[in-house]
Design brief:
Order of helices and strands: EEEEEEEEEEE
Strand content: over 45%
Radius of gyration: 13 Å
Shape: globular
Largest sheet: 7 strands, mixed
Number of helices: 0
């Protein structure tokens, strides 16, 4: 199982980036795909996830209203549109997969991508 995150970069505060998570998952539509991030010196934290049931999505309070997650089951990919970025969004962003409905706990995800760096300057 392979996940590959891409789309990171450096932007100024208020800017936008779109992250992509490409996967080789069979039965992709049955997986929750989550985005997590880890800033230097901080623990990894949940950002957002797209669940297979009813197209459910969840967001961390810190990104609600600014980030939008979407998925393309035919392409076996998930996207994270990040708008109005803030310096505190600076981190390495990871996508992860878990069978069926998962939530915000990273320990429930079984497959991880390599991460993509997002840097937001003030």
């Amino acid at each position: 199982v392979q996940l590959q995150a891409s789309g990171g970069g450096s932007v100024q505060a208020g800017g936008s980036l779109r992250l992509s998570c490409a996967t080789s998952l069979e039965a992709f539509s049955m997986y929750t795909i989550g985005w997590f991030r880890q800033a230097p010196g901080k623990e990894r934290e949940f950002v957002s996830c797209s669940m297979p049931s009813y197209g459910g999505t969840r967001y961390a309070d810190s990104v609600k209203g600014r980030f939008t997650i979407s998925r393309d089951n035919a392409e076996r990919a998930v996207f994270l549109q990040m708008d109005n970025l803030k310096p505190e969004d600076t981190a390495i962003y990871y996508c992860a997969a878990g069978w069926r409905d998962k939530g915000t706990d990273s320990r429930r995800y079984t497959s991880w991508g390599q991460g993509t760096q997002v840097t937001v300057s003030s």
